[in-house]
Amino acid sequence: MDIEILYRPSYSLGKITLESGEEVRVEGGSMVSMSDGIDLETGATGGLWRSLSRSMFGGETFFQNTCRAPSGGGTVWVSPALPGDLLALDLRRESMMVQSGSYVASAMGIEVETKWSGAKTFFASEGLIMLRASGAGEMVVSSYGAIHEMELGPDEKYTVDTGHLVAFS
């Protein structure tokens, strides 16, 4: 799977190129278009309870789409729900916390579940529930507005208001 983000930082469009038989999971409402021959299946990913939890508490849709490329490969185009930016992240058998509503698409090796974000965000009236993405593969996240990626050193700390946070590990 190859991900290319176009037209950053606003009205971004993600081009996901799949090889023969390769699959990508796409959040409901995020797929813009797909090439001929892509097999599209819609279902409750992870079962009834996980899908219900993700949709009720995580700000995501109950149903997700699985796009499978035909023998010659194919392309799936995705966009954020609101005008804004997209970012491709590469998870390498690790976990990443994602703001609810920011998940767009991921490789099939990534599992997304809801996670309580703590009392501080509860009392600040911010994102009460976040998503935990874990596994290996690429993932696309979105924001309302531009995404500014920061990489911190081992002992470095930085404060970001949870209303402006997209993802962190």
TrEMBL record:
NCBIfam families the record matches: TIGR00266 family protein
Family annotation (InterPro entries): AIM24 (IPR002838), AIM24_sf (IPR036983), Trp_RNA-bd_attenuator-like_dom (IPR016031)
Organism from which the protein derives: marine sediment metagenome
Protein name stated in the entry: TIGR00266 family protein
Membrane-crossing segments per the record: none
